[in-house]
From TrEMBL, chains A, B:
SMART domains: HTH_MARR. Residues 6-138 form the HTH marR-type domain. InterPro entries: HTH_MarR-typ, Tscrpt_reg_MarR-type_CS, WH-like_DNA-bd_sf, WH_DNA-bd_sf. Gene3D superfamilies: Winged helix-like DNA-binding domain superfamily/Winged helix DNA-binding domain. It comes from Peribacillus cavernae. PANTHER family: TRANSCRIPTIONAL REGULATOR, MARR, TRANSCRIPTIONAL REPRESSOR OF EMRAB OPERON. GO terms for molecular function: DNA binding; DNA-binding transcription factor activity. The lineage of its organism: Bacteria, Bacillati, Bacillota, Bacilli, Bacillales. Keywords: DNA-binding, Transcription, Transcription regulation. This is MarR family transcriptional regulator.
Length: 145, 145
DNA sequence: CCTTTTTGGTTGCTATAGCAACTAAATATA
DNA sequence: TATATTTAGTTGCTATAGCAACCAAAAAGG
């Protein structure tokens, strides 16, 4: 019997991601930041001064996008880039005052988002989901090598 | 204690989706179809003649993208659009011979992809993941209304 | 029947997302 | 130390993704 559309777990994951992204996008819109820009800021709020490459690795994304998103964040005056003193190819990315302050506004939004998403789901279930998703990533990454 | 980057399940879902999409993208590249184009074809292989709107609803996507992706599929001569006889606004989307034949090549690839992704994961775990992801979608959709 | 509302699709815009090819700086190696 | 290779970032390309505004056909309601 052929596997049908609804049987693919990857499609379920994809649809869920789109739904969640669309929701947080709307929540962040009043603050004039996009979801992926928010992810970069989230990293910087935890640890300032990362290089573009480090950000790309942490977000598991192509450095191309990171560079472009950082340009946008720079235009919005939320971050600034400074050439690394010991490596002339590399930039360190720092939050501006405005970028730091934005964090205080964003935090309650992402907090509430997380509560909404996880409502009615036990921590055991979340644990299973987390482990299974990690395993899936490892499965395809191993398959590539 | 503040929630950190790695604690957000939505980020985990997003990263996993990117990893899986990137993998299937590479697998489908030799057949010259992109992952989302493949999703549309997957629907049509199951049921031919859907309208653009029906496709958008099944894929839970904006009709704008569907229209554009269908244009691409039309350029590749995999589908054709015919005006609905009883509703002059609507198009029915049909697979071409070429589109039907492509299905036979794609099926083993998506099958193997699914096996790779799910390897080492029990069906009970998959069941939990499926239910939790569905619940998360419902959580945010309820929150919007 | 004629106006109003809804519905199916398109166009224009912005934001991801990643590949290929490139530049320039840093490192490794002959 | 001169050459080769690797690394950090940019530019150009294609493909998603969804919002707003729009057009035209269909349906609803008076």
């Amino acid at each position: 019997m052929k596997i049908s559309f609804n049987d693919y777990i990857s499609i379920m994951i994809h649809q869920t991601d789109l739904t969640l992204t669309s929701y947080i996008k709307a929540k962040l819109a009043p603050l004039n930041i996009a979801p992926e820009q928010n992810l970069i800021l989230l990293l910087l709020w935890e640890k300032d001064g990362l290089s573009q490459n480090e950000i790309a690795k942490r977000l598991n994304k192509d450095k191309t996008n990171i560079a472009r998103m950082l340009s946008n964040l720079e235009k919005k005056e939320l971050i600034s880039r400074h050439i690394n003193e010991t490596d002339g190819r590399s930039f360190n990315v720092y939050l501006t005052e405005k970028g730091i302050k934005l964090g205080e506004q964003v935090y309650p939004i992402t907090e509430e988002f997380n509560r909404t998403v996880c409502s009615g789901i036990t921590s055991e279930e979340l644990q299973v989901v987390n482990e299974v998703l990690l395993k899936m990533q490892q499965n395809v990454e191993m398959s590539v090598k």
